């Protein structure tokens, strides 16, 4: 049985750990799928390449109110798709080749790993290995909801929808979170009739309620949004998918060419038979880790979607750096910093958030003041004729320290960044607003003004 210094399971964010500082280590990497993991192959990267393309496709329609009459002649779907994956697939193949053929100290096993005993791993390739240290970086996968006959009907997830051979005429999206909001924007901008089916009363219900309400209003004008619906059965009739729903007005059916299921992601910990090596798992499937990313077994670390509360690439990258340091310096371990984790939804409009929502502040009994500023009331908002976007900030009324920020509108994912910086470095709202120049007339003025609107004690 081969023995290694380190085994890394999963080539998403885990693949970045073994850099030149590990040249003297004997390392095994196990991957069951395509090299590079979710973000590169089926997540952040391709979706944002589609989102940018969708923004371009949607631009002509927004020109008329500025006095520019433009028309979208068409979207060459296969060209769009092949440009995106023509860029991505070689990166994945190159990464695999580099690890498998050019890293003298790394052995790549292409199989589904599972533990068979303490620090003993079946690589799924016919070979069982042992190691002193393991990194569990096995990520997550789409949840398949309990809807009768879904399997026999056939459906897509975010893993497959981007590789369609042709644009559907109609697309139903089951789910109302990040994936649903981003793909609804992509496909509707390409001319597809989109229906979004959600369980709760709002799209993106985990956002600050004012933001989720505004997004739901804007979305309902563009897409057929059906909320408070339960999907009970699916069927395929004459080649079309029919989704049977139960809602406030009783039973209804949505028919479309394709169905995208986007109801969340579950950690891949169940594939690993972790009990065999004694690693603890939360009831929701996340591997239990401490602030140093250590599991319940000495020498076994976990990071990213398989263990994190946040299924986000910037969090997985951060945790990978922590694991990397702690492998190299076990006597001086560092902790992950999850104080101010931001997130953005790249839909239309965009949404970005960091820190507490107003609802969380209320639920947790946190003292706060809140203020907002509309894009429509800053100069660049006039330039864009934006009439739905706004920035909202929450702060401690006494210290002025920022507790949360929520932005809905153009470039929200970039506009919010100075607030993330202020929160991370303990800058109070007044100092942040008045202690620096804000380029006029640029979009971050929406943040400057929201900060100035806060009714702080001093
Ligand atoms: C459609 C979509 C869009 C997204 N967009 C964004 C975004 O814009 N911004 C953002 O921050 N985040 C985004 N995310 C989330 C982000 O992709 C993930 O948080 C991140 O990729 C997780 O990285 P990871 O290394 O933990 O797991 P992964 O990248 O999923 O890597 C895990 C790897 O482990 C392998 N594996 C699993 N089990 C085994 C096993 N038993 N044996 C061997 N190998 C195994 C898998 O095949 C996979 O390659 C998006 C996700 C999706 C689905
Ligand atoms: N821009 C980004 O950073 C980005 C983009 C895409 C995905 N992601 C990550 O991937 C994760 C997964 O995305 P997601 O959109 O699949 O999950 P999500 O958790 O964001 O949203 C899932 C939604 O589906 C709803 N739902 C659950 N079961 C349902 C059912 N049976 N019928 C109808 N609705 C149901 C839930 O109430 C929830 O609102 C995200 O939470 C996020 O962390 C991030």
From TrEMBL:
GO terms for biological process: 2-oxoglutarate metabolic process. PROSITE patterns: PYRIDINE_REDOX_1 (PS00076). Pfam families: Pyr_redox_2, Pyr_redox_dim. Belongs to the class-I pyridine nucleotide-disulfide oxidoreductase family. This is Mycothione reductase. It comes from the Bacteria. The active site is at 440 (proton acceptor). GO terms for molecular function: dihydrolipoyl dehydrogenase (NADH) activity; flavin adenine dinucleotide binding.
